[in-house]
């Protein structure tokens, strides 16, 4: 079974992914900042893991190395961690929140993709899954900074896909619509449950070598775009 590194594993989609992959025998290295939630997840699933703040570039690079050393190499990277500071018109946003979202939502996945490519390229095999958002397909007022970073991640993903696929490495952009997680303060029962979204991503890892999914987009029935 494959070795998988998952960011943002302490809650929501990343947690559901970790649970499902461990149940199916994958060797998972999970990460997040919340040490208590991570320890609980490790106890529940048997996954490996350690804390890292993805806003810190040095911690991102160190996380990849720790995970690779612990698992004996990463075969699947899932860049799942992400956050939105708040809803605000661009004019009302602060430089600090732009820089924070840049670091977590775009720079960290870039650093992890780069590290994974360096490891996967000589092997001629591997898989990188970038969790973006349907927000990157739209231009929604009050979502300017988040949209900027997620569209940036989509651009990175799409170029990387073309560079990686001839080398035997699969790269997929996942565009979830609304999911009922702690991403927002309020519950959204009409949105997708993280377990359902996780199932679709697990399927990407189980697809046969001759099938590559470039984009996976899914939404709750409450959303049209
Ligand atoms: N929920 C939605 O409606 C929705 C829709 C489309 C796309 N997405 C995307 O889907 C992904 C998963 O979202 P979710 O709904 O599962 O969100 P969530 O429940 O808020 O979980 C986010 C995860 O990211 C981690 N994280 C956040 N900031 C971090 C940082 N600085 N360093 C390390 N880890 C950090 C959190 O862990 P710690 O707090 O422990 O650090 C947590 O495990 C994200 O990329 C999000 O943008 C979400």
UniProtKB/TrEMBL annotation:
SUPFAM superfamilies: NAD(P)-binding Rossmann-fold domains. GO terms for molecular function: oxidoreductase activity. CDD domains: SDR_c. Keywords: Oxidoreductase. Gene3D superfamilies: NAD(P)-binding Rossmann-like Domain (3.40.50.720). GO terms for cellular component: membrane. Belongs to the short-chain dehydrogenases/reductases (SDR) family. PANTHER family: DEHYDROGENASE/REDUCTASE SDR FAMILY MEMBER 7B, DEHYDROGENASE_REDUCTASE SDR FAMILY MEMBER 7B. This is Short-chain dehydrogenase. It comes from Ferrimonas marina.
């Amino acid at each position: 079974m494959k070795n998988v590194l998952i960011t943002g594993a302490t809650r929501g989609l990343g947690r559901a992914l970790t649970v499902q992959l461990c149940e199916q025998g994958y060797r998972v290295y999970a990460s997040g900042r919340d040490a208590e939630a991570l320890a609980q997840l490790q106890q529940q699933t048997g996954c490996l893991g350690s804390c890292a703040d993805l806003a810190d570039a040095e911690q991102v690079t160190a996380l990849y190395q720790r995970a690779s050393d612990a698992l004996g190499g990463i075969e699947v990277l899932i860049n799942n961690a992400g956050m939105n500071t708040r809803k605000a018109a661009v004019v009302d946003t602060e430089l600090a929140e732009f820089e924070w979202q840049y670091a977590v939502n775009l720079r960290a996945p870039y650093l992890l993709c780069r590290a994974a490519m360096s490891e996967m390229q000589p092997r001629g095999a591997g898989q990188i899954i970038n969790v973006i958002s349907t927000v990157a397909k739209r231009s929604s007022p009050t979502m300017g900074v988040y949209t900027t970073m997620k569209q940036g991640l989509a651009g990175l993903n799409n170029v990387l896909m073309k560079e990686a696929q001839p080398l035997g490495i699969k790269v997929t952009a996942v565009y979830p619509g609304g999911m009922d997680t702690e991403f927002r303060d309020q519950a959204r029962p009409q949105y997708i449950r993280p377990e359902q979204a996780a199932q679709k991503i697990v399927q990407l890892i189980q697809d046969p070598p001759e099938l590559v999914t470039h984009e996976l987009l899914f939404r709750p029935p409450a959303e049209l775009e």
